[in-house]
């Protein structure tokens, strides 16, 4: 099968694309899922691989019965797919699984690296980071320097390489590592990782990359960019329920102590002492792993590798330009981040409709147009505040004020449409027309919604039926009733 044919087949394979919901006008139809930056839908063939594995399920680390042998071999295969997908030489790099997303990997790396080189007390973090690639480094390190972006206000974004060079020149060999996103989860702005790695390595610092928002959208080459540590979440690349993945240079891992202890990561244990294994990745995967999730993630990566991430990127670039230009052309709509022509970006576009709080935009898109987007600050509060600063000042709101009241929180955020492999041109056309519709009916929409909670909104008259929402208790009740 050709790359093009396989990519088309995969695009049509996702679970949940055709799930139907009601709208205010009494109609029903399939949703338009534009919330992929939060979590992607599941790729069906990977789910089938996981389901089939469950018929053979057993723990790993044994060769003495068929099921355990198969589990061990399949889990090893999943590690190999991770390395292959990010172009990491297995002689130089090791991959291991951690937690249920990228957060566990960052916490472990921050805890270990902060102890490994105490003479290097400074860590650099870009201002675009998701909290998971910011807070762990703050917590475990003595001094953090945040690296600013280019531009200002709504166009703020893309790492400011001139300022980064100045920071490296100032702090030099006091820097332990720099943590940057491969692509922003707010604006999709892509970081020039090879250039950052060169600057870091010139002073002996490590480079940690959060690839969670890049991994499903563009090719990644750890060898080419010379990245020391890369972390991503399986639920951002069509394998919800999978663990997070960490890929690191073996010499880096061998220079630090294991952050988690337990079964499987030791060679021997006595009452007086224990001996961690030198074998990787075993040393980094204490306890019984998420075998099913790892195998499903491996299946996704294998399929995408066969299709070619360059083809995925090629498809998405046109969609980004179409959605950006379409939303930007609507009167009263603000879009955020650098222009796609100025800074390469992935398929994530944050926007606001003038007069609408971000929660109202998300609620109305759902209720009237069956379009599902995310809203808020996307766990990137400092970056979002910079993007919104001018607009918040115009409303006499201090964007940096701590302990903001609920009405401030309603203003301090955005709506975010984010693309996946399953996103079609038709989906983006519907988004643009829906935003244009809401912007043109501002007063009517405002009169039909009431605020709930800190940043939510609810239609005054429209309510979906209970059966339209997923409810595990209801499904279990149906199972028990059918079994009686």
Task: List the defining traits of the structure above.
alpha/beta, Aspartate Aminotransferase, domain 1, Aspartate Aminotransferase, domain 2, 2 domains, 7-stranded mixed beta sheet, 4-stranded antiparallel beta sheet, 40% helix, 18% strand
Brief digest:
By secondary structure, this protein is an alpha/beta fold.
Explain what the structure shows.
The protein is an alpha/beta fold. It has two domains: 3-30 and 308-377 and 413-468, Aspartate Aminotransferase, domain 1, CATH 3.90.1150; 47-307, Type I PLP-dependent aspartate aminotransferase-like (Major domain) (Aspartate Aminotransferase, domain 2). The chain is 40% helix and 18% strand. The protein is built from 17 helices and 21 strands. It has helices at residues 3-11, 44-54, 66-85, 102-116, 135-140, 161-171, 193-202, 222-225, 250-254, 291-307, 309-328, 358-369, 381-394, 406-411, 425-440, 442-447, 472-483, and strands at 14-15, 20-22, 28-30, 32-33, 42-43, 93-98, 122-126, 143-147, 175-181, 206-210, 229-233, 244-249, 266-269, 274-276, 333-335, 348-353, 371-372, 374-376, 414-418, 449-452, 456-459. It is globular and about 70 Å long.
């Amino acid at each position: 099968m050709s790359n093009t044919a396989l990519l088309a087949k995969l695009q049509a394979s996702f679970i949940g694309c055709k799930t139907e919901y009601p709208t205010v006008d009494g109609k029903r139809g399939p949703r338009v899922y534009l919330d992929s930056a939060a979590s992607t839908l599941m790729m069906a063939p990977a789910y089938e691989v996981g389901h089939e594995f469950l018929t053979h399920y057993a723990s790993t680390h044994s060769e003495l019965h068929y099921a355990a042998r198969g589990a061990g071999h399949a889990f090893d295969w999943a590690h190999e797919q991770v390395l292959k997908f990010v172009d990491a030489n297995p002689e130089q790099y090791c991959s291991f699984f951690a937690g249920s997303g990228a957060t566990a990997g960052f916490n472990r790396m921050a805890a270990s690296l902060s102890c490994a080189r105490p003479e290097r007390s400074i860590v650099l973090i870009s201002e675009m980071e998701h909290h998971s690639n910011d807070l762990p480094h703050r917590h475990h390190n003595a001094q953090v320097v945040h690296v600013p972006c280019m531009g200002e206000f709504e166009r703020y974004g893309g790492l400011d390489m001139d300022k980064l060079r100045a920071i490296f020149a100032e702090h030099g060999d006091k820097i332990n590592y720099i943590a940057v996103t491969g692509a922003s989860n707010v604006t999709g702005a892509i970081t020039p990782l090879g250039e950052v790695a060169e600057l870091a390595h010139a002073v002996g610092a490590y480079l940690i990359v959060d690839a969670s928002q890049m991994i499903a959208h563009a090719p990644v080459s750890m060898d080419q960019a010379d990245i020391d540590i890369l972390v991503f979440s399986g639920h951002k690349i069509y394998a919800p329920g999978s663990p997070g993945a960490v890929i690191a240079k073996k010499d880096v891992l061998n220079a630090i102590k294991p952050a988690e202890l337990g079964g499987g990561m030791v060679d021997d244990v006595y009452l007086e002492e224990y001996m961690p294994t030198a074998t990787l990745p075993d040393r980094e995967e204490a306890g019984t792993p998420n075998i099913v999730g790892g195998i499903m993630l491996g299946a996704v990566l294998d399929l995408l590798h066969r299709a070619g991430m360059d083809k995925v990127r090629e498809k998405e670039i046109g969609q980004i330009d179409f959605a950006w230009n379409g939303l930007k052309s609507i009167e009263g709509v603000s879009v955020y981040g650098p222009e796609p022509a100025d800074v390469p970006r992935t398929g994530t576009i944050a926007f606001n409709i003038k007069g609408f709080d971000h929660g109202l935009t998300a609620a109305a898109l759902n209720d009237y147009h069956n379009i599902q987007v995310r809203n808020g600050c996307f766990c990137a509060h400092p970056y979002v505040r910079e993007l919104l600063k001018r607009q918040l000042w115009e409303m006499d709101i201090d964007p940096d004020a701590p302990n903001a009241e609920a009405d401030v929180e309603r203003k301090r955020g955005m709506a975010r449409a984010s693309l996946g492999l399953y996103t079609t041109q038709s989906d983006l056309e519907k988004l643009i027309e829906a935003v244009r519709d809401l912007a043109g009916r501002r007063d009517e929409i405002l009169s039909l919604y009431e605020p709930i909670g800190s940043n939510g909104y609810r239609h005054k008259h429209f309510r979906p039926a209970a059966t339209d929402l997923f409810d595990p208790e209801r499904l279990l009740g149906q199972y028990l009733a059918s079994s009686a």
